[in-house]
Amino acid sequence: MRRPACILAALLAILLAGAAVRAQAPQTISPDRANAQTTDGGFRRAYQNPYLDHALGGYAQTSCKAAIPIAVARTQRIFPWFDEERAPQFSFHANAALDTPASPWAGGYYLRDRHIVYVQHVPVLLDQGRLLQTMQHECVHAALALAGSARLPLWLEEGCALYFSGQEILRAPEGSRTARTLAELEANIQTLSAQNDQAAWEEVRASHAQARRIVSLLAGRLGAMHCVNFLRVLKNGTPFAQALASYYALEVRELYAWL
Ligand SMILES: [Zn+2]
To answer: How far is the CA of 44 from the centre of ligand 1 (A)?
Structure first.
């Protein structure tokens, strides 16, 4: 954060205004997007030069630009290797992002192979007071992608993005499926995230809540930094059960009680 604190505070107030989130579509990204292979050989300082859709008004453009260093700095506090140099490019859109499959939901997604964060329906996000959190959520995905090329389970990837960006999850509808095992949780998130309909997006909140809960309990157990180190070894290819045993002295089955 390099801008004067007073401006930051004012912008934060704007960005966080109306935090009573409503009609939130879950911030899911497909497993393919989450785990696509990195192909670029170097990182641009592209975060300083975001793409801003011409259809965005001046207020929205200013808010987007101001939110970038805040989202990056907050993410760096948790993932120290994620800095301005290695931050992704941001691409802000008034409606659905142009060069991606049209998506009606307001939110963001991270494309690992291009190291870019798309934020779509920016005016809706501003209205709902969740532009900054959306960007932080996607920065967590980007930070995890930078940590190594191994795939995290989808539940863990999303649970981390939700927990470390401090995101609220809206209530899932009555009767939404919940998992009793991690394999079941993984399958539920995968199935529901792949469906492009509102009902599935609302139902997946229950799974996201379960995923975030496990991450929050892991992070609460021995601290966030310990959890981040655990994530790093996973991203470097250590099998989940092995990393869980060495970092937490836990067996996978013991996590089922946290669901
Ligand atoms: Zn996500």
So the answer is: 23
- Counted residue by residue, the chain has a size of 259
Say how many Å lie between the CA of residue 4 and the centre of ligand 1.
30
Q: How far is the CA of 29 from the centre of ligand 1 (A)?
A: 5
Tell me how far CA of residue 232 lies from CA of 12, 48, 147, 149, 238, in angstroms.
30, 27, 6, 10, 9
Amino acid identity at 30:
S
Q: What is the pLDDT of residues 87-138, one digit of tens each?
A: 999 999 999 886 555 566 788 999 999 899 999 999 999 999 999 999 999 9
Q: Which of 259, 225, 230 is nearest to 245 (CA)?
A: 230
Q: What is the pLDDT of residues 181-229, one digit of tens each?
A: 999 999 999 999 888 778 888 899 999 999 999 999 999 999 999 999 9
The alpha carbon of 27 and the centre of ligand 1 are apart by a number of angstroms equal to 5
Q: Which candidate, 19, 139, 143, 116, places its Cα nearest to that of 70?
A: 139
* 176 Cα: distance to centroid of ligand 1 (angstroms): 19
Instruction: Please give the domain boundaries of the chain with CATH numbers for all domains.
Output: 5-11+24-258 (1.10.390)
Contact 75, 228 (CB under 8 A): no
Give the bridge partners for 52, in sequence order: 92
